[in-house]
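Blinded run. Sample ID left blank on purpose so nobody reads anything into the name before looking at the predicted structure. Input follows.
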Amino acid sequence: MDESKSVTANSASIDPRLSGQVTSSLRVLNYLPAICMVGLFVSGVGVVGHFFASEEAREHWPQPRTVDYVVKGHEALAIEEIFKDVFPIRDFSTGLLNAISLVVFDETRKGLVKGADGWFFSDEEFSWNRKSAAMVEKHIGFVQDAVADLEAAGVEPIILLIPEKADIYRDKLGSIRPPASRATFYDEIRTRLTALGVQVPDLRTTFLEARKGTDVFLKADTHWTVAGAGVGAREVASSLAADTGLAREPYTLSVEPEAPHSGDLLKFANLSIFSGLVALPQETIAPVSAKKAEADLDDLLADGEAGPQLAVVGSSYSANATWSFEAQLKAATGVEVINFAEEGKGPFKPMETFLAEKLPSMQGLKYVVWEMPLRYFDEVKY
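Blinded prediction complete.
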């Protein structure tokens, strides 16, 4: 049989039902581009509708805007930012990408540095750019002016310079290495602050010794532990030990119930719904509170007239009661403490506010403990 007859015979042997299914499938494929276009259109309408219905967009529309504002593109940028924030699958896609980076490649997204043994660090402690040196000078200048203002008011500052977590736990950085400029950063800044005639306890040396027995920083948080805050409080107490003119009373510390704590560094992981699938450090914190012996009415009236002798100004290291710095400072010094530290503003802005708004009305104040984490000295935003 020749070849043409063989092909004809094979074609004739195909099941007509199968041939019909193939033809039907081919017809569906012909409509596939149109189906995809309709699907994309419907999805687009849904996304746009979600954008206009969002709370962020509803809050944006009533705001006044000028023609110049619109022409220069500021309005378009504002709308773009809102759209990105409320995009329906933004959290899902971002969480998936971050989970893959962390689990598969052992890498983290911007803002977070993954070390060894479950330790995480802020990338602020690894940065040094062309603006860093200028920011250090700016902040040293601010400290110099602030110290002069305090001393002019008869108040002695004690600067509690908190070392960087990545410096104290260099052995937990794994393969990550900080810039060479950070190796001596603490000693350089402390030397310059001491040159201003201010007491600056060497907290770095004390932390390196203390960490042999307890963690002084949290694994997944930028802040110190309760124990680390206690080390800082005792350093301040040593600086005040020789002053016999301070009104002192004994304080007792009470341990509060232990509670789980999610470190502030974990927010940079941004795993969304995938957080349960990735092993992250789980920590607990037991804050402490300070209570002094009950004073009689005469003592209370005397305290009210004299005013506090010791104040704290600084960042969230002092402001947040979770770390219990204020309570442990009271217990370590035996002195009543008034706290002007603020969360989320670094160490410099709270001092600026204190000098302008609080210091003029303070009566009897002798010391200000200025708590300042080292990592803020080269920060552009502070």
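Unblinding after everyone has recorded impressions. The chain has 15 helices and ten strands.
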